[in-house]
Amino acid sequence: MDILKQLADTFLDWKAMGEVIPKMFAVGLPNTLVLAIISGIIGTALGMLLALMGISRNAAARWVARVYTDILRGLPPVLTILVIGFGFGPIVREFTGSTSPYPMAVAALSLMSGAYIGEIFRSGIQSVDKGQLEASRALGFGYGASMRLVVVPQGIRRVLPALVNQFIALIKESSLVFLLGLLASEREIFQIGKDAAATTGNLSPYVAAAVFYLVLTIPLTHFVNWIDARLRTGRPEKKEPDDAAAVVGKGAQA
Description:
Layout: H1 2-11, H2 14-54, H3 59-74, H4 77-96, H5 102-126, H6 130-138, H7 143-158, H8 160-173, H9 189-200, H10 204-233, H11 243-253
Helix pairs in contact: 2-3, 2-5, 2-8, 2-9, 2-10, 3-5, 4-5, 5-7, 5-8, 6-7, 8-10, 9-10
């Protein structure tokens, strides 16, 4: 019983949770969502560019996309955030005059997600049957128009579950930007929990942060499963009434 009480005091101190949850709602949750959404949008645009470069007929473009993707996917996220935040941060601050590391956090997350999303798009586009491109070219479309109007939309549709999974990963990776020392008004869920845990000497604020992340990610995980099932099975077809059943029904009404 003493062990259970000790664990409860360490992880389930309701007073410590109650003190930190309002700040997580007011500051941490909005900042986490802003980091994930903005980085996801920029990363998606960058990823599409990398995917098109990766399948380009231009060897230089393919080489640039390959090198970028290999480096950003090969580095640990924490190392990428530190290199971009502390390596390029002073240069950016010198030109902009801003002391906030928030833009560098967005840049680091965007560059990382762009590498992964680029590979997702590339695999989706290359999974489309080559006959689709040949058929559109036979109808008089140029290569660019065929890719833009026929091949790319089909490829994107096939990788929608993977894209949502990448957004879930972005939400979790946003917890690493605390390394850049965000201002009090810019701190995300994990940083607020970390600060509260350091102040109280209790781990319950970490548990509160974990609950916030689970509330964000679990519904998205089920949404991914729903999209995946929908793409594999398609929309259920409406069953037409059987002719014999229709005749019987009319007879019963008469």
